[in-house]
TrEMBL record:
Coiled coil: none annotated. PANTHER family: HTH-TYPE TRANSCRIPTIONAL REGULATOR BETI, HTH-TYPE TRANSCRIPTIONAL REGULATOR RUTR. Residues 35-54 bind DNA. It comes from Demequina sediminis. Residues 12-72 form the HTH tetR-type domain. Keywords: DNA-binding, Transcription, Transcription regulation. This is Mycofactocin biosynthesis transcriptional regulator MftR. It comes from the Bacteria.
């Protein structure tokens, strides 16, 4: 079999593998010291291919976080999903099931998110869709008006609790991330004194 790539044919690139390579570079050299060119060189893809999948360096950091939210959304929309905060907590435990390799990469990503205002800000737009989906899930269970203030606040609070707990975990805890996020959601569910 000939492994030669034909001229003009688009490179095949796996965004997950590119993300893993980027995280390894960030871990080795620090986020600020790594360029998109460095990531392209490490992954063996062209700069053009890299930018086809990631708009900027911050997207490399947020990519897996948003992939986790997509898995969460799938878990919440299954017929077997429990309603409300109980369902959200169960779904989060499922999608954050312990995997030492994935947790270490997540720790690097989340530390960067927590330590870099630029990277943190770059991800905020992506959280809007997530917040809306969580708001709809919580509204259905709690009898809240979908699209109303209470549902929006509930979705925003859940998103904030998940992100804050995840960043805190990366910076301060050796526990599984699933346990830390679950504790944060349990606190939110119980109400904040």
């Amino acid at each position: 079999m000939n492994d030669h790539r034909r001229p003009g044919r688009p490179q095949i690139a796996d965004p997950v593998e590119i993300g893993k390579a980027a995280v390894a570079l960030f871990h080795e050299h620090g986020y600020a010291a790594v360029s998109m060119d460095d990531v392209a060189a490490r992954t063996g893809v062209s700069r053009r291919t890299l930018f086809r999948h990631f708009a900027n360096k911050a997207d490399l950091v947020w990519h897996e976080f948003f992939a986790t939210y997509r898995r969460l959304d799938e878990a919440l929309t299954r017929d077997s999903a429990q309603p409300g905060m109980t369902g959200l907590r169960a779904a989060m435990r499922e999608v954050l099931a312990p995997d030492a390799v994935a947790e270490e990469a997540a720790r690097v990503r989340l530390r960067i998110i927590g330590e870099s205002p630029e990277v943190f800000a770059a991800g905020m737009l992506g959280l809007v869709d997530i917040t809306d989906r969580l708001a709809r899930h919580l509204a259905r269970a709690d009898g809240l008006e979908e699209g109303g203030l209470d549902a929006h606040v509930a979705g925003q609070a859940a998103t904030g609790a998940i992100l804050s707990a995840s960043v805190w975990w990366a910076q301060h805890s050796n526990e599984p991330v699933s346990e830390v996020v679950d504790r944060a959601l349990a606190r939110l569910e119980a109400g904040i004194p």
